TRAP transporter small permease protein
Amino acid sequence: MSSRPPKFRPEAWLASLALIAICVISLGNVIVRYTTDASFAFTEEFSVFLLVLLTFAGAAVAARNNQHIRIELIEHYLPPAALKVLFVVQWLVGVSVMGVTTWYGAIFAMQEYDWESLSPGLGLPNWIYVIWLPLMSAAIIFRMTQNFIDRMRGKKDAEVIHES
């Protein structure tokens, strides 16, 4: 049994709820399709949205727990002074990428709202789907920064077991 405390963060709950919703929607659609030869119209549109939400929420959880894919070999063999420089570089690159995503995602969401664009499947306002892009990107930046501060203070990561 793990000695790590449970992770009750909003994005972890959001990812869990999105995954549950995808499963329920997909299962419901399969059952209806096989019993009635019809299908729900909303399943693909909602499933794609929820999958994107799940991806960004999961990325925020991974950013906080330092579990993103990275080259760990370099970290294991660097001296402590050089390791801190590497942490700064990793954080700067990550924040830069997610900052651009947040910026352009916010512009995109505002344009969708201003243009009153509707989704092709259900005709819902597109901004309802798109607004999550800058929000979740900002959450990833926040969690990366928390992780960066912990690493700079010397807090050791819990051992991650990589299955292959």
Summary: The chain has one domain: 10-152. The helical segments are 10-36, 43-64, 72-77, 80-115, 127-130, 132-152. Residues 10-152 form one domain. The mean pLDDT is 88.
